[in-house]
Every structure is written in structure tokens, then in C-alpha cells.
Amino acid sequence: MILMMLGAQGTGKGTVAGILSTELGIPQVSTGDIFRKNISEGTALGIEANKYISKGDLVPDEITVPMLESRLKEEDAKNGAILDGFPRTIEQAQKLDEMLNKMGKRVDLVVNLVTPKEEIIDRMLTRRVCTNQECKTTYNTKLHPPKVEGICDKCGAPLKQREDDSDPEAIKRRLDIYEEKTSPLVNFYEEKGILQTETVSTAVNRMGADVARDLVEKLK
Length: 220
Ligand code: AMP
Fold this sequence. Notes:
Elements: E1 2-7, H1 13-24, E2 28-30, H2 31-41, H3 44-53, H4 61-72, E3 81-84, H5 90-102, E4 107-114, H6 117-126, E5 127-130, E6 138-140, E7 159-160, H7 168-182, H8 184-191, E8 195-199, H9 208-219
Parallel strand pairs: 1-3, 1-4, 2-3, 4-8
Antiparallel strand pairs: 5-6, 5-7
Helix pairs in contact: 1-9, 2-3
Bound molecules: adenosine monophosphate (AMP).
């Protein structure tokens, strides 16, 4: 089963994908996480990708698409995956269809998370992530703080703010790119009849964990 998370930054895609991954037993495949792992390990891919990521730009397809393809071919993804952060453009979505087609798979469900813009910016500024690359749990200093400030509840590693979350220019650039290049994917998947849109907002008292719980019930 191939599931896909769609939605702007800070809507909770990673949170929902993480819960679905644990509950459904298929890996969360986050292109952003793979890039960040490469950056922290100082690989050639990481150094190249960081030139774009630090500014809030998209990493070119020549780097991103083969990276995603080889991840989807790994053993743990043979029964499916939860895509988080890929595709980000119609072109990437078409390349994904070709790739999955060759593997005898297809996208089964696209979960589109929608959150009011003011809430999104606030969430990006208050997001903290676990520095342990094997854990990567996400917190929010206001909505979902760790039990001990700055320390991951799950593994005890220090938490940090993502570099691209601390720079207001990079945040704005990422949201603009989402509007321009990624949001057309909503229609793309709606026309295929596989889109499920969910509002995630404190205003309606529905957060990522609530969406994930309902999805697990539907998919299990
Ligand atoms: P994310 O963790 O999904 O917010 O991704 C962090 C950054 O990684 C993005 O702002 C992009 O610079 C880069 N990135 C992640 N996924 C992709 C993708 N599918 N295509 C191009 N760049 C990506």
C-alpha cells in the first residue's frame, strides 16, 4: 500500500506519517529526513542538497528522484510506504507514477492536510526535532512540548530547531513554493479519485494524531 501525505509545511504531515508507519507497519519515507541525514553525515549528496534546503528552495529532481527511487526499492518498503514530502511538483508526481508502475504498484491514498496560514507559521517557528537520526520525533514547544525541555521523551537525545525553520525568509520561500508548485497536486490527485482532505487546526480542535487515529481505523 502506497500512502502519500500532502499539505504545506507545518500541517503535521510528519506526525501523521509517523503514527501511520508504526500502526500499519510500513516505513515513512520522508525526502526531507533523508536529506537532513545526509547533511548531518556530511555526504556529497547532503552538501549539494543543503545549498538549496538552507534557502528554502527545492532540491533539483536529478538528485531527489533517484534518491527516492532507491529508497522505495529497499527491502522494508516492499509492502508499501508512506510518502512524506514527495512529490512536490506535478513533474515529480508523474515520475512517481512511472516509477511505481514499473514496480507494479500505485498510489492508493493521498491524505491532504489543510491548516490556516497563521497557524502554520507559528507551528514552524515552535517546531523542534530530535537530533537522533534513528528517532527524529517532532515536538512543538506550545502544542506538544517534551516532558523535559530540549530533551526527546522517546530516546533522551537533545532537540533542536531545524535550520530552515528558524529563518523567516526561508519559511516564506517554502510556503510560496508550496502554493506555486505543490498545491496543484491537490487537483491532480482529486481527479484520480484518491484524495482525502483533512483540516488540522486548533480552531476545530483536530490535530494530526486525531487524523492518524481515524485513518488507522479505516485502513487496518
Ligand atoms: P521537508 O522536511 O519535507 O520540509 O523538506 C525540507 C527541505 O528538503 C525542503 O524545503 C526542500 O528544500 C527539500 N526537499 C524535500 N523533499 C523534496 C522534494 N520532493 N523535492 C525537492 N526538494 C525537496
